[in-house]
């Protein structure tokens, strides 16, 4: 399955076009390497997705072409969630 489609089906990202844009910006790592939207993902892969000031690390558990909202919990396991600290503003703004 394509990376952008998995991000949408798993509801990590709401829209496939947004998932494509995020991947194109280099904010998604697949097994520690920058991934393009068309990269194929498989069960056991580890994704690092950067959302603004936080990074979510998940492991893919199951792949499916479509899913209901209630069934998304089994698609991945959250391994780590980190919040990055904002850099100090030297001007106090």
TrEMBL record:
Function: Key component of the ribosome quality control system (RQC), a ribosome-associated complex that mediates the extraction of incompletely synthesized nascent chains from stalled ribosomes and their subsequent degradation. RqcH recruits Ala-charged tRNA, and with RqcP directs the elongation of stalled nascent chains on 50S ribosomal subunits, leading to non-templated C-terminal alanine extensions (Ala tail). The Ala tail promotes nascent chain degradation. RqcP is associated with the translocation-like movement of the peptidyl-tRNA from the A-site into the P-site.
GO biological process entries: rescue of stalled ribosome
A GO MF label: ribosomal large subunit binding
DNA damage listed as a keyword: no
Record-linked InterPro entries: RqcP (IPR025490), S4_RNA-bd (IPR002942), S4_RNA-bd_sf (IPR036986)
Ranges for domain RNA-binding S4: 1-61
Keyword terms, alphabetized: Protein biosynthesis, RNA-binding, rRNA-binding, tRNA-binding
SMART domains in UniProt: S4 (SM00363)
Protein family membership: Belongs to the RqcP family.
Complex and partners: Associates with stalled 50S ribosomal subunits. Binds to RqcH, 23S rRNA and the P-site tRNA. Does not require RqcH for association with 50S subunits.
Protein name: RQC P-site tRNA stabilizing factor
Keyword Metal-binding tagged: no
Gene that encodes the chain: rqcP
